[in-house]
Structures are given as C-alpha cells and as structure tokens.
Amino acid sequence: MKEKIDKFKIPIGLSLVGVVLIIGGMVASGLTKPKIEYPKESIVSGIKKISVDVSGAVINPGVYQLDESKRIEDAVLAAGGLTETANGEYVSKYLNMAQKLSDGMKIYVPFVGDSAPASVAGSTIQSKVNINTATQAELEALPGIGVVTASKIISGRPYSKIEDLLTLKIVSKSVFDKIKDLLVLY
Q: What phi, psi does 49 have (nearest 5°)?
C-alpha cells in the first residue's frame, strides 16, 4: 500500500493545494471585500431643471423652474392656469400644449382681443412664425420651405435659437437667409 501512496503522492498533494487555493479564493473574495455604501444625498437624480418664462393671460405670470421633461401644459399649470380673459380660441388653435419645454423658453398666452394670425382668402398673412409652435401649414407658407423641410423643423423641436435651423442642417444657408427675418422663437 505504501507503494501506491508513494506513486500518487505528488498528484494528491497538488490536488489538495488546488482545493485549498480555490476555497481560500472564494472565502477571501466574499469576506474581505468591503461593501461600499454611498450616502443617498450623493446620488444624482439625473433630472435637469430648466427655466421657462410664462406670461400673458395666466394667473401667476413669471419664470418657473421645471423638469426638462415637462410640456407647455405643465408650465401653464405651474403659472396657475389660464385666466378668464385668456384667448381660448388662439390657445386651442396655435398653442401646442403637448410641446416639450426647452431652457429659456418664453410662453405667451394672449388675452381676448390680442392680435392673432389673420387669414385672407385662405392664406395666412405673412407674420412672424414661431418655429417651436408653428403648424406644418404655417411652416410650408415660408419661402423655400416645403413639406419635407417643414416636417424636419417640427421633428427637431424644441429649438433654443433660430440659428439652430442652420447649425442642425435642417435648412440650407440660402433658405435660412430668406426666412430668418420671418421667424421668431418663444
């Protein structure tokens, strides 16, 4: 029997060393690693706040800090909602309450009697067009803007400045030069 033990002494010894190392590694990795707990105050929520100016026919006009995921409807509600003197027809036709907000955005709710875009023979009289709220038809009425470009403008909303149309390559330089004086942003 001693011969058999001598014959397998090295493989048995190496096997025992291997088992000890494996068990030791498993124990060490689970017991010696400190569990790091971060204070809840240090966790960043990831929700960015933006400033939006709400004025006109709202109960409490002013600048409001809102989450960047909010919509125009949320900004109007933050300002207390519409007053009784708000131009409801204009709001329902031209103010897109579902539009996402952008930092520095201006939202004006007109009063009854404020001038609104007028129509003559079915076409809109050329007035300033708000690229953040204009309809497809209003955008297509601009010189050099067709169906595809109007759709690109709507898809790229919200804009923080008119020049975004050029920097984001939504319109060419020549088209931008034609329309830049016809655009407004709020």
A: -95, 145
pLDDT tens per residue, range 127-155:
688 888 888 888 888 888 888 999 899 98
Q: How many CA atoms lie within 13 A of 27 on its CB side?
A: 6
Domain boundaries 44-116, CATH class: alpha beta
Rg (CA), the chain: 33
What is d(CA 175, CA 54) in angstroms, rounded to the nearest whole number?
Answer: 31
Determine the 3-state secondary structure of 57 from DSSP: coil
CA distance 53 to 106: 5
Query: Is residue 129 within 8 Å of residue 184, measured between CB atoms?
Result: yes
> 41-45, 173-177, 182-186: which has the highest mean pLDDT?
173-177
Q: Closest by alpha carbon to 81, among 97, 65, 94?
A: 97
DSSP-derived 3-state class of residue 17: helix
Is residue 162 scored above 70 in pLDDT? yes
Instruction: Give the span between the Cα atoms of 167 and 50, in whole angstroms.
Output: 22
Domain boundaries along the sequence of the chain:
44-116, 124-186
